[in-house]
Amino acid sequence: MKVFKFGGASTKDAEGVKNVVKVLAMFNGEPLVIVISAMGKTTNAIELILKAYLDHDKVLATLIHDLKRYHIGIIDDLFEQNGNSVIAGIESLFEDMQMTLSRNKSTQYDFIYDQIIGYGELLSSTILSAYLNYSGYTNKWIDARELIKTDSVYRDAGVQWQETQDKINTLLTPDTCYLTQGFIASDANNFTTTLGREGSDYTASILAYCLGADNVTIWKDVPGVLNADPRVFETTRLLSHISYEEAIELAFYGASVIHPKTLQPLQRKEIPLYVKSFLKPNGSGTTVKKGAPLDPMVPCYIVKKNQILLSLSARDFSFIVEDNISELFNLLHTHQLKVDLIQNSAISFSVCLDNKFNSFEVLLQQLQAKFKVSYQKEVALYTIRHFDQDAITRLEQNKDILLKQLTKETYQMVAKQ
Length: 417
Ligand code: ADP
Ligand code: ASP
Ligand code: MG
Description:
Elements: E1 2-6, H1 14-25, E2 32-36, H2 42-54, H3 59-78, H4 83-103, H5 109-117, H6 119-134, E3 140-141, H7 144-147, H8 161-171, E4 178-181, E5 184-186, E6 192-194, H9 200-211, E7 215-220, E8 241-242, H10 244-253, H11 263-268, E9 273-277, E10 286-288, E11 294-295, E12 300-314, H12 322-334, E13 338-344, E14 349-354, H13 360-368, E15 371-385, H14 389-396, E16 401-406, E17 410-416
Parallel strand pairs: 1-2, 1-7, 2-4, 3-4, 7-9, 8-10
Antiparallel strand pairs: 5-6, 8-11, 9-10, 12-14, 12-15, 13-14, 15-17, 16-17
Helix pairs in contact: 1-3, 2-3, 2-5, 3-4, 4-6
The structure holds adenosine-5'-diphosphate, aspartic acid and magnesium ion.
């Protein structure tokens, strides 16, 4: 069994969906589990739908209408016949989504978010499964929420591995091609949960782990993992091999091409991960597996934008030491603020934060009651793995640097954006 994952970029229009069929044709006859993300920027569009719903904004109806038109437009371009039954399926999903919103009584944002956001994946997988069957690529649509069980930490759910393994053992049979959704799962009460934004890579990895798959391929709009994000750096090099440990480091520091949670389950069972281009499926791509850290061994650049640099010092003349540091980290944990870098001196303690859940303002109020606080928003965190002096000099050019840190393999710097 192999697991394939196609992200939003690969299915953003009818041409993309047709290309998926071409890629799959190269593997015809092999049992596959195919994981699909929402089409194009659908997840962002549903976030806006949710905002309009919560704000009682009149734009809600238009946003829903536009998203429906987008999906129906793709179906119209794909199917010469039988498109109507697929459209009926899509309309029924939109009715469900609207029903869920109108019946909602919860005031918990994260809970409501998870009950709505996964419709993107339900829509895309319904269209993909139907189109693959229509094109002769027989597959069975399966609801990922039946396969992957999690705790109830909405928007960042933790996998319950034993329950998930049991579900997969009973529901999936060998020699069948399945098509399912990335990103979504369910909790003990069968409410929808999600694995975090961009979490579909992780879905592929969870399924591969439980199936003991031969390998996982994530199909991207880049030739593989490069030594820098091509949207940010003009010249990049393809990394043909990366060890699990090195890939975990790169993803941890923010190389967004692979979701950070993806690698550990694969490493545990030594399942190779291939990152390949859906535009050039015959290209060699990147293989992540056991072995030397990196081939070629070149500096790797990672940029995380829109971070917050927060510095604390005590209100009296004391130092920031264990007891107040532990209090600070408790608060960071409670507000789900991710710490990307820590630096302390005798009188001040600085952290670079990722404000993923927009909870910084609440944290700030609590901190200001206890500490002298300064902060700077809209800073970028730059990381170079396997740096050399030349790489540092080039990166630092024209930057307003706020903080730097060096370890043996890793250079990090926070600068104004
Ligand atoms: P999808 O959601 O379609 O699976 P993503 O957009 O999440 O794909 O990931 C692919 C994108 O990741 C690329 O278009 C590229 O801009 C970005 N990216 C960031 N860092 C890297 C890197 N080191 N190598 C390749 N792509 C990278
Ligand atoms: N559709 C989800 C997102 O955009 C999950 C994913 O694409 O991996 O975050
Ligand atoms: Mg993505």
